[in-house]
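The material for today's practical consists of a large collection of protein records. Getting from the letters to the tokens is the skill we practise here. To make this concrete, we reproduce a full record directly below:
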Amino acid sequence: MPTIRDLVAAIREREGVQAAVVLGRDGLVIDGQGVPPIDTENVAAHVPPVLLAAEELGHASQHGSLQTAVLEHERGTAIISALSPDAVLLVLALPSANLAQLLYELRRNRANIASLV
């Protein structure tokens, strides 16, 4: 059976993916890999406020709990995917990454990924 480390490595090895991090909702890294100069611990520490705001928006709009958030920045995209009540997956990707395929696979495999956490 694959481990969290295997999952992180498989996502990180995808073309255009700069970092893959599994973290607690408190922002602490469970496991992660990133290309320099990305500091996975620093990036992970910034995720909880984004999660909180996205969850509040979902409840205010009556859309429910957050599943996936996609944040497009000037030089890349951040994908935050809720895995469980305690853990999330953060993926940082370059503009050249195939986001459609990545998002599809994350959605399709959410339960399998969550079972590793």
